[in-house]
């Protein structure tokens, strides 16, 4: 049984959790754009208009045009799918890998724990962004390479967190009772220990999603992400840096979009943390 408070559904209906409501609403808006953005775009995001180079915002082009005349508003809408899908895919895959490594190391202990913890600790010595850059350089500049790089950079810290939680949980009485009645260790781990760690895992993954957006955008800015003409926001930032002084709107549009998406994930994560906090229960 998971350690989610029994009164969670009631707390969800309480409107004072501003972070959860604001974060989920803003995140839902971005997911909507990720799905329907290309259909809502007023122009083809890759269509060039050589007679409208570096135009500022206007009634025709709401966010202006880039250095080869492409409509920035259309590219932001179409690019939402790239940024959101890469972030969510990376977090999901990192969750699978991190939970698997951390739970096995924490529950079985001994030599298994020493080996896995040694690998995790070694990877933790390398900052996320540095590890992601190294892996993206090897995996290649593509959406797949970007996803692999972000995933690999998130697995070590998540595995460490899950390991600590599992070590704490396996000392609980319900685990000892399960062992006493002859339940297998894998069944105990999968059906009793991990469900009780689910809250911590969900909160951590929701917060990591915002960081995934930043790392993905940074790699795109460095030319290690999705390659042009795909309208990925980090790639758009990188392409616009040389026009910063003459057309600042080029970098402002994707920059603001990235900031809002990170805000959505972070506030949603903060809201989930408050939502699952039993101290909020009156």
Automatic annotation (TrEMBL):
Residues 80-269 form the ABC transmembrane type-1 domain. Keywords: Cell membrane, Membrane, Peptide transport, Protein transport, Transmembrane, Transmembrane helix, Transport. It is a multi-pass membrane protein. Signal peptide: none annotated. It is found in: Cell membrane. GO terms for cellular component: plasma membrane. GO terms for biological process: peptide transport; protein transport; transmembrane transport. This is ABC transporter permease. The lineage of its organism: Bacteria, Pseudomonadati, Pseudomonadota, Alphaproteobacteria, Hyphomicrobiales.
